[in-house]
Amino acid sequence: MAEYIVSKVYPSDKNGNRQIDELLHAEGIRRDGNLDYTCAVYDDDFNVIATGSCYANTLRCLAVSKFHQGEGLMNTIVSHLMEIQCDRGNTHVFLYTKCSSAKFFGDLGFYEIVRIEDRLVFMENRKSGFSQYLNQLKADGDRLSVQKDKAILPEGQREDLMDGSVISGLVMNANPFTLGHLYLLEKAAAESDVLHLFIVSEDASLIPFSVRKKLIVEGTKHLNNICYHNTGPYVISNSTFPSYFQKDGTDIITGHAMLDLTIFIKISKALGINRRYVGEEPNSQVTGIYNDIMKQELPKAGVQCIVIPRKESGGAPISASTVRKAIQDNHMELLKTLVPQTTLDYFLSSEAEGIIEKIRAAEHVIHY
User: Fold this and answer.
1) What is the per-residue pLDDT across 96-114, written as a single tens digit (0 to 9) for each?
2) Is 263 in contact with 231 (CB distance < 8 Å)?
3) Of 146, 114, 149, 116, whose CA–CA distance to 269 is shortest?
4) 208 alpha carbon, distance to own chain's centre
5) What is the pLDDT of residues 227-252, one digit of tens each?
């Protein structure tokens, strides 16, 4: 069997990238829009016969020419990419693959987290990674002392609390925390015995996670039944979701929603969540499709889906995009009508100067 060398492919390598696109296309894959490293294996005639890429701590766009399958090239590609991840300091690595390829990657040391039949499998290189994450969520819940009608009880009495109680879940990015977010949380908290709030911890937003979490916690100190959780790597964002083997835009949204919901249902079972709150997004086709899928799928797992209409200001829905635009335009009077006092105080402080500069320099602050 021939020995092949894996080479990095730079964005400026037009021929190499053209061949990679052709190989991916032949294998029913299209180039992902979020890649930060790409490699390839060449044959003796400098033709690309295998390729793979990274984005953050994920592996993606993995393909081997049908004329060279069975030669161990995928093992070579994955081993190389894992070395790249190790050099980056990433010991916890994820990948997405077609259902038909999951067993192969299992043999390479990856473990299934969730599977969306006929679509994809989400995998990680830690056998107990997801179970440890669920255990941490339960431990966080046990530490919450609720001074309302009931209290979070010790582990052995958890079922007594969940029986007949409203245990809710809500996922929030809050880029940044607005009066709309506050309205949603106040309503969910008022209607729940316990509200598990999952704050998206991936740093893919203009406002970093540490600040987003700080603003949420400070803005909700008056709500005593919220348990705050970091999402970690298991709640998938648009940037990390693998769109490269989805058929079209609607298929990508559906695949993303089904993956998110399958993970959320596992989390719900661990925490006893029986209700999920989401905010209505009247101007977003993506979120509209996503919410429709949630309303269909969550009840099948015993989780009620509650869609809350958006809070308005001046006749228009309050959104984080509007807040970022007000900051970018230095429209502080408008900002005062869109955010809680705690968020306003932060953006008027010297602590926010670097983030404000970043927002004002951004080409796009409005997201649809």
Assistant:
1) 888 888 999 999 999 999 9
2) no
3) 114
4) 15
5) 999 998 887 655 455 554 445 567 76
> Average pLDDT in the 60-78 region?
93
Structure tokens belonging to residue 354 = 């670097």
β-strand pairing of 275-279 with 167-172: parallel
The structure's pTM equals 0.86
Exposed / middle / buried, residue 83 (Cβ in 10 Å: 0-12, 13-18, 19+): exposed
Alpha carbons 158 and 326: distance in angstroms, whole number: 45
Does residue 289 contact residue 260 with C-beta atoms inside 8 Å?
A: no
Burial (CB < 10 A; 0-12, 13-18, 19+), residue 140, is middle
User: How many Å apart are CA 350 and CA 346, to the nearest integer?
Assistant: 8
Total residue length of the chain = 368
Q: Which residue has the tokens 């894996």?
A: 6
Tokens of 153: 């009880």
